[in-house]
Amino acid sequence: MLTIHQVSKYYGNFCALRDIELEFENGVYGLLAPNGAGKTTLLRMLVTLLHPTSGEIRYDGVDIYEMDEQYRELLGYLPQDFGYYRNNTPRQYLMYLSALKGMERKAAKEKIDQLMELVGLQEASDKKMKKFSGGMIQRVGIAQAMLNDPKILILDEPTAGLDPKERVRFRNVLTDLARDRIVLLSTHIVSDVESIANEIIMIKDRQVLYKDRIENICRTIDGIVYETEIDFERAHDFRQRHFSLSEKQEGGKLKIRFLSTEGTLEGWRAVKPGLEDVFLHIYQDEKVGR
Ligand SMILES: Nc1ncnc2c1ncn2[C@@H]1O[C@H](COP(=O)(O)OP(=O)(O)OP(=O)(O)O)[C@@H](O)[C@H]1O
Predict the structure, then answer these.
(1) Which sequence ranges form a coiled-coil region, renumbered to this chain (predicted)?
(2) What is the C-alpha separation between 135 and 141, in angstroms, rounded?
């Protein structure tokens, strides 16, 4: 088990994260917050690239900085921008990395074959990466993070730049991997974690606001999410009074999904909150990068 206890991180006087308490067991965890909330900072501490200003991070009870190399052997990391050589094929690139990691050549070859299959790149494994789509590159990124068969897989905004089909493919790969390891991915896109994460972690005001299953997080705003149809002329006033979550035109009217704590008015339907609603509710005062 990976535990974060009382961890704070300051950049000079600026507090990026405060008193973080988290525990991770095998499964997929989605770290969901707007840009700038501190996701990368948290992940970089978990991969030992940054040191907490205070507090401790332990793996099975042992401080990860004391474990040092032994801990890094358990880690797979996909940073926001991972460096690769455009003229390399995935196989060349992974062979190179496996040599850096000190893997034996034959074992590395076998592992790379397995990984290419896992991420669905068998046919492209000998093609130059400069021809690859964003999704294919991300899959190479996962493969490189999996080279050492990590017990902890950390992915920073891994779905950026993927098209819808690639997202589905990506989710399936992660669900498979999470059966026997901790998978932690950060994102500011709700739909990327909604269907795969066992638990969602939300950071607000530098602290952990939620770490819970999606249904429990959604329950926190039960009874304040509504839908109704209004005339377009009323839209401006309506938005002044109620926080609009989503809107679409339907049959000459505006169908609006919104938050209200005023009780149900005529023509309003209370609806079941989704994770997107919670996200918008929590970060409604912040500039949300979506
Ligand atoms: N090296 C640094 N020095 C000073 N401030 C920093 C440094 N790195 C990050 N910050 C600040 O700390 C806060 C959290 O940054 P962080 O990159 O962790 O956020 P994030 O949630 O990962 O956002 P993004 O997805 O945009 O990277 C931001 O306000 C950022 O400006």
Answers:
(1) none
(2) 10
Which residue bears the tokens 């992915």? 155
Interior angle at CA 30, CA 205 and CA 7, nearest 5: 45
The C-alpha atoms of residue 104 and residue 245 are separated, in whole angstroms, by 54
For residue 157, give the H/E element and its range. Answer: none
Residue 38, φ and ψ in degrees, nearest 5: 115, 15
What value of ipTM does the predicted structure carry? Answer: 0.94
Phi, psi of 186 (to 5 degrees): -105, 145
**Measured from the CA of 38, which atom of ligand 1 is nearest?**
18
Which residue's CA is the nearest one to ligand 1's atom 17? 40
H-helix or E-strand spanning residue 202: strand 199-204
Which atom of ligand 1 lies at the shortest distance from residue 42's CA? 18
From CA 266, how far away is CA 131, in angstroms rounded? 56
pLDDT band at 138; cut points 50, 70, 90: confident
| Strand partners of residue 7 | 20
Taking the CA of residue 34 as reference, the ligand 1 atom at the shortest distance is: 21
CB 159 within 8 A of CB 135: no
Distance CA 9, CA 53 (A): 5
Residue type, 24: F
For the segment 265-286, the average pLDDT, to the nearest whole number, is 90
SS3 167: helix
Distance 90 CA to ligand 1 centre (A): 30
Q: Maximum CA pair distance of the chain?
A: 71
Gap from CA of 35 to ligand 1 centroid (Å): 8
Q: How far apart are CA 141 and CA 90, in angstroms?
A: 10
